[in-house]
Amino acid sequence: MATTKWGIDPTHSEITFRVKHMMISNVTGWFESFTGDAETENEDFTSAKINFSADTTSINTRNEARDNHLRSAEFFDSEKFPKLTFTATGYEKTGGDNYTLKGDLTIRDVTKPVTLAVEFGGVATDPWGNLRAGFEINGEINRTEFGLTWSAVTEAGGIVVSDAVKLHGHVELIKQA
After folding, report:
1. Number of other residues whose CB lies within 10 A of the CB of residue 132
2. Is the distance from CB of 19 to CB of 166 less than 8 angstroms?
3. In the predicted model, is pLDDT for residue 157 greater than 80?
């Protein structure tokens, strides 16, 4: 079977995260700059070789001071580690349009296996003849396992930033010529 190459369409995709703040609300952020590709041998992507990277300097939480703190050595250390990466190790159908995506996530200099839930939206041809595939991706990581260990406690003993980080992606791939 022929290999098909796909590239992420950044104008129709977004990679976001959500983390509890003060354990009473959430802060949402995203990466402005990211790339990704896939190579498949079938239409449901179960044989896909998937790679993704995000520019840690492109983090955006709509607060410049917080974004600069996230880029600092206390979090991503963007000067030393400008990218986070994900390389898939498996993609399995779990039922209907639902899949499990397993892979190695590298943040800073730490690589850990992660498992993500994927909903495959299907494949469609756009008005210009390009074949596109859509996905919803969800997961959760513990930020401290990746060296993002900054922590603070309020006067009352509450945690300022949760260790659990929820990941979410709307991803649209375009078949490459």
Report:
1. 17
2. yes
3. no
For residue 112, list its beta bridge partners.
105
CA angle, 117 then 119 then 124, to 5° = 150
Query: Which CATH architecture is the domain 4-175 placed in?
Result: Beta Barrel (2.40)
State both tokens at 67: 């974004």
More confident residue, 157 or 29: 29
pLDDT in tens, 28-81: 999 999 999 999 987 778 889 999 999 999 999 999 999 999 999 999 999 999
Alpha-carbon distance 71 to 86, whole Å? 19
Q: What are the CB-based long-range contacts (under 8 Å, 24+) for 21-26?
A: 21/160, 21/161, 21/162, 22/154, 22/158, 22/159, 22/160, 23/158, 23/159, 23/162
- Per-position DSSP letters for 67-121, written without gaps between them: HHHHHSTTTT-TTT--EEEEEEEEEEEEETTEEEEEEEEEETTEEEEEEEEEEEE
Which of 107, 134, 108 shows the shortest CA–CA distance to 45?
134
Whether 158 shows a pLDDT value over 70: the answer reads no
pLDDT confidence of residue 69: 94
Residue among 126, 35, 127 at smallest CA distance from 83: 35
